[in-house]
Each structure stands twice: as C-alpha cells, then as structure tokens.
C-alpha cells in the first residue's frame, strides 16, 4: 500500500484485527490451507 494513503492502511489493519479477534481468519485458514496448522502470523511492519 502506498504511504500516500494511510487511511487505506488503517482500514486494512482494522479488517485484519477483526478477522483475528472473531475467529474468521482461523476459519478461512482451515478451509483454504488444508494440511497445515493455521498458526496466526505475527504482524511485521515496515516503514
């Protein structure tokens, strides 16, 4: 994402935080990433 659009970054981060909090991420990972344990990734940010 472009640094020129910090509002988009905030929006995407919010969507990801909600998906992690309500279990959506784990459900999607189990459905689409078959054969592996869906470990929640550690967020890594770059400037």
Question: How would you describe what is shown here?
Answer:
The protein has a domain at 7-35. The longest helix is centred in the first third of the chain and has 16 residues, at 6-21. The chain has 2 helices and no strands. The chain is mainly α and 47 residues long. It has helices at residues 6-21, 24-32.
Keywords:
47 residues, mainly alpha, 2 helices, 0% strand, elongated
Question: Layout of helices and strands, plus pairs?
Answer:
Elements: H1 6-21, H2 24-32
Share of residues in strands:
under 5%
Mean pLDDT: 85
Structural class by secondary-structure content? mainly alpha
Q: How many beta-strand runs?
A: 0
Largest sheet: none
- SS field, number of helical segments: 2
Radius of gyration: 13 Å
Order of helices and strands: HH
Unreliable residue runs: none
**Straight-line N-to-C gap:** 11 Å
Shape: elongated
The percent range for helix content is: 40-55%
What is shown here, in short?
This protein is mainly alpha-helical.
